[in-house]
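Example record

One chain of 258 residues, shown exactly as stored in the release files.
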Amino acid sequence: MHIHAVQLDPVWENKQASFAKVHALLAGAPPLPGSLIVLPEMFATGFSHQLAVTREPEGGETESFLKAVAAQWQCAVLGGVVTPGPEGKGYNQAVAVAPDSRILARYTKVHPFSYGPEAEVHAPGIGPVVFEWAGIKMVPLICYDLRFPELAREALKQGAELFIYIAAWPARRTGHWLALLQARAIENQAYVLGVNRCGQEPETGYSGRSSVIDPQGVIIADASDGEKVLTAELRPETVRSWRREFPAVKDFIAKAQV
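Predicted structure tokens for this chain:
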């Protein structure tokens, strides 16, 4: 399976302008039909806390855009949206759509970022959602979730072989980003795809560094900084053969079932 990670500098609080950037980036690096296209957390607006700008109903303009991209390129597409939550809050979500507009997965960020104001405007989700595309089981997770390995373990119990972290991860903690992506790959014997935004927001800068990590923790693709589409080929058998050879996942699952 091929993945195409769109490392984007969203236009602040401007969905249509951000959509145009995505179109241009994909047109410059056309995805292969049947692939998976992944966009960052809140790719349409940047990491804004203004719900009047970011929040939209399920099936709103950002999800409609994801469906249009999926149909155009005949790929599955995963990207970040904000939908209505309880008590006037929003849900920070990752939504995956198929070329025929089916919703493959809708995941709500379990750990809103409490170090900043996100936890005041976004309500938490309840757990991971695993889905299958192109013969590999995968799970979308979001940014701060990366710091909580037990969440990935829950997805592992559901059979996840590819962990996808979409993010707005600040440049000043890039070292943590790379180290934690590698850790999640090593401990779960899985591919890990981290898709981060780049560029500058009013208060925060982002270095990008979208990366693909193999099941032994080796970085096999790194987007560095700047806007681009990072492409890599993932082979499900690479995960499965390593898990057979070195049975750490098997031992974890056996222990978890006791």
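Notes: The first helix runs from residue 15 to 28.
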